[in-house]
Design brief:
Belongs to the CobH/CbiC family. This protein is α/β, with parallel strands linked by helices. It contains 12 helices and 10 strands. Helix 11 (about 240-245) links the parallel strand 9 (about 230) and strand 10.
């Protein structure tokens, strides 16, 4: 048998779910000697130990077993596959871990990319996806309609290559937010200005500011337009409320419950849509 990686963690902090420990199994200090003996009987000859807390006072190491410090594990872990292979492996692992049963098959690539971006399996449980979101967003991007993000981080995370292939422009609300009047945040004011200035904007990708999402809902109620909304504002002030208001609106939307969100999720949602269209075009 090859090398085994063990993280030695005190019982009171062993809350990490088994599937998220990577190559390290988690063992308590009290159980470590017995686990090493079991591994020795199975033919394991090298074990990397990473101690997250105090080391055991006494440790019985089986004869012929090499114990290495967790810091030395880098030498055994450094042989990474190519980037495309890493992504493929990640999604293969995710398909075995993520419960997609409540989503239609067509949404699985989108949900998996979101969970992959978040690094959090529980995200799938809190996603709210309007039945018309996927067909509407795909069609609008296929028509070359523009995307509006709330902040530069979302825009930076969206694949420029895939956007260019579809002829899709990406605008940022912050770049339009010069001198906001009293009562407006920069993102809310910039979003209002951008929607007035660029009638081709039809996909909103909001991953930072709750005020931007709230302003978008207000504008779209005042001046309806064909649009799909990705709403992942993050934080503890008005983020959850803004998402609930989006979820109860008739707008084709993608959002989640609570304050968890962020620019990476908003960008990942757009990239998932772009990848779908790219694969459809290539087939």
């Amino acid at each position: 048998m090859g090398t085994v990686f063990i993280a030695v963690v005190e019982r009171n902090i062993r809350g990490l779910p088994p599937e998220l420990k990577g190559r390290f199994e988690v063992v308590s200090p009290e159980d470590l000697s017995a686990r090493l003996e079991e591994l020795s009987r199975r033919g394991v000859r090298r074990v990397h130990l990473a101690f997250l807390g105090p080391r055991p006072v006494s440790l019985k190491i089986p004869p012929g077993m090499e114990i290495r410090d967790g810091r030395e594990a880098l030498s055994d872990l450094e042989a990474f596959p190519e980037p495309a292979e890493i992504e493929a492996q990640s999604f293969e692992i995710l398909r075995g871990l993520c419960d997609l049963s409540r989503f239609p098959q067509a949404l699985h690539p989108l949900v998996l990319r979101l969970v992959h971006a978040a690094g959090e399996l529980a995200l799938a449980e809190s996603l709210l996806i309007h039945p018309d979101f996927l067909p509407t967003a795909r069609r609008l991007l296929k028509e070359g309609r523009a995307i509006l993000t709330d902040v530069e981080m979302v825009r930076a995370g969206i694949s420029r290559r895939l956007c260019e292939a579809l002829g899709v422009k990406v605008y940022s609300a912050l770049s339009e937010a010069e001198s906001p009047p009293s009562g407006f945040t920069r993102t809310a004011w910039g979003l209002r200005r951008a929607l007035e200035k660029y009638p081709e904007i039809s996909l909103l990708a909001l991953g930072n500011a709750p005020t931007a999402l709230l302003e978008a809902l207000k504008i779209l109620r005042e001046s309806p337009r064909e649009v799909a909304v990705i709403g992942f504002p993050v934080g503890f002030v008005r983020a959850a409320e803004a998402k609930l208001l989006l979820a109860e609106s008739p707008l084709p939307h993608l959002t989640n419950l609570g304050g968890f969100g962020g620019s990476a999720l908003a960008a990942a949602a757009v990239n998932a849509l772009l990848h779908m269209l790219h694969e459809e075009k290539a087939s």
